[in-house]
Amino acid sequence: MPEAFAFGSVVTIKNSAVGGGYLHSHAHLYPEGVSVMQQQVTCYHHKDFNNEWIVMKPNQMPVPEDPVELIKHNDIIRLMHKPTLRTLHSHKERAPITSRHYQVTGYGFNGSGDANDFWRIEAVDGIDTHIGTVKTVFKLIHINRNCAVTQTTKKLPKWGYEQSEVSCNPHSTDHRSLWNIEEVTDARLPNVSVAIYAPSFLQMFMESHKVMAQGNRGLKPKEDEVTSQPWQWPIDYRGQVFSGASYRVYLLGNPVIFWGNLVVLVVFSGVYIFNGMKKQRRCEELVEVKEYKEKTFSACLWLLLAWALHYLPFWTMGRVLYFHHYFPAFLFSTMFTAVVLDYLLKSLRFWFPRDVAWNLYHLGLGLVFSIAVYSFYLFHPLAYGMHGPLANNETSTMYGLKWLETWDI
Q: Span 13-27, mean pLDDT?
């Protein structure tokens, strides 16, 4: 592929924003009443022959015998859509969706048009050299309206095949008005190895994470879909319906464990503060006790950090959220509970005789396991499938287990 492009080259133009599409047109008009009924110009996210444009001089059609004249910063150009021979055009009419922008259309035929077909190509770096393929980022500024061709964040309706809207934005500082040349076809220009366009590992790493972040932000709930908020998750406020057929499956955290984790967190906070006060007062402790506390508290703080890193970022997200997003954080919360309970039970040996402490330890351990197993037995139909009436009905297998009104069981 050539390293630059010239008047007469056939190019595809791609928006430089994360998830940007190709500048595209097709032989369909904007519908009456939406905008002026001229040919649609959109952004399309797949390779297609309708993405191809011929770069032309302002008042001259290209011919194969033309000398090579590379496109430079601030050159005035026209872009003719190769399949339909319509020229990229803008005027004072509003865009179909983003009403504060101007409409961008395909106009004229085979090079004929008017003064609204002229665009100035502005390289972002502003260097007065040729516009490079792939690497040079530029804007297309309309000569008459002084607006920039922009891929908006809006999707066109079915008459636009749900492709992205393209408009001419009077505020040319919008990052979605930046473009680059993706492909060049021109037999007059020498080809270079595509290896020179290969991004570095860091560039690929950053780009992939930007794409994932944008994809996440764009996820919206479906119609009538039950979603949840991060504050609801640790308190097991609402579950998630997986199936509403004859056998109902409902994703709900075991309330005994979820609420037990919160109780243990409060207990640990009290123990941690109490030990901090003892340390400030320089109370003497056995070396064995001191080492055991430090080891346990260190493990607890690391687990709390892991819980926070897996949970708190959801508070900043604008995407649709579900109860199951809490589960990775829940694992660390439960491990934290296990470490704290183990610490409390093993600390009994510092307060009671050895035989008594040993018996109390096993009694406490057995009680914790018994509660966990029995609570699983009570709520296991939620996961394995409930049938019959809902939990509010006395004949329901789940009767008496709807501990919160927000549970759809």
A: 91
